[in-house]
Amino acid sequence: DVQITVPLSLTTLPVDMVITSRVPSSVNVRLTGPRTIIASLSPKQFGISLDVKGIQEGTSSYEILHSRLGLPRGVEVTEISPSVVTLAADKTAYKSLPIKPRIKGAPKVGFEVEAVESNPSEITVAASDRALKVFRELETEVIDIGGIDGGLTREVQLVFPDASFKRIEQKPVKVTVKIKKMAAERELASVTVHPPAGGWLLEPATADIRVTGPVSVLSRLSAADFALSAAAPAQEGGLSKLSVTLPDEVELLSVTPEEVRVFKGK
After folding, report:
1. Can you tell me whether residue 227 is helix, strand or coil?
2. Element housing 103 (H / E)
3. Measured between alpha carbons, how far is residue 228 from residues 80, 84, 255 in Å?
4. Using an 8 Å Cβ cutoff, are 95 and 132 in contact?
5. Which domains does the chain have, with CATH numbers?
6. Are the C-beta atoms of 191 and 223 separated by less than 8 Å?
7. Which candidate, 88, 84, 86, places its Cα nearest to that of 18?
8. How are beta strands 48-51 and 2-11 bridged, if at all?
9. Sign of the CA dihedral running 68, 32, 6, 43
């Protein structure tokens, strides 16, 4: 005896029907016969096709007949497993579903995810009518973003919820993950304000500033990295709006006070 694995396929499935159950890709066949003939057999010589043109909604069973194999004379089948294939079917429906990208992991320390986008953002599929009433989106395979410090774009596969789902559009699906430096806020108190040249004095002579920027940048800054200055007023004792010079990648949120009194020293 010898056992071979024979491919199984379905034929003439009506266009308005879809198989919702798992379909075996092959069956195991045990054969007996003359040794010389058995030794010459190859699984590639055989294939079993199930004609399902009459399938209806619900469950149908199909017997795997020995005669479908077309074996040489003198070779007989002693066992087929599975000998019966049971299929569940439903009416075919069509729908455009949004694509939901899936990611795992976290970017490099000091970075964060800014956006995750799919192109296209939705795709048309055929599936069982029941399934499309339940599932409202299609997930992608998981993309690992662990430790990255820059954006990435990757072509991905869709993960279908059940066997009835088929793509109508064959365009590739690409997911883009945008990464940015993690932002934070920081307050610096009593930063020195530089008066205009010419013996001018300021009241007050310091100001508090609140800034935002990447964590990696803010963490290494001190008050000395900021330049606050006031221009000469139109008249002595008048108010002058503060000017703030910031380090690269840093944005000003507020300065308190916004104006200082500028006057001549005695």
Report:
1. strand
2. strand 84-104
3. 87, 84, 10
4. yes
5. 2-91 (2.170.120.30), 92-181 (2.170.120.40), 184-264 (2.170.120.30)
6. yes
7. 88
8. parallel
9. negative
Query: Given this model, what pLDDT does residue 254 score?
Result: 97
The H or E element containing residue 239 is strand 239-245
Closest CA to 178 of 115, 99, 111: 115
DSSP string covering 149-210, please? -S-EEEEE-EE-SSTT-EES----EEEEEEEEEPEEEEEEEEEEEEPPTTTEEEESSEEEEE
pTM of the model: 0.66
pLDDT value of residue 72: 87
Q: Which residues of the chain have pLDDT under 50?
A: none
- CA dist., res. 56 & res. 43, Å (int): 31
**Residue indicated by tokens 């789902």:** 165
Taking only Cα atoms into account, the Rg of the chain, rounded to an integer number of angstroms, comes to 37
Sign of the torsion angle spanned by Cα atoms 211, 212, 213, 215? positive
What residues have CB less than 8 Å from 67, skipping those under 6 apart?
Answer: none
Supply 259's token pair. 């104006």
Q: Are the C-beta atoms of residues 172 and 99 closer than 8 Å to each other?
A: no
Q: Is residue 19 within 8 Å of 59, Cβ to Cβ?
A: no
Which among 138, 164, 150 is positioned nearest to 55, based on CA atoms?
Answer: 164
Q: CA separation (Å) from 204 to 187, 190, 238?
A: 18, 10, 13
DSSP category for residue 226: -
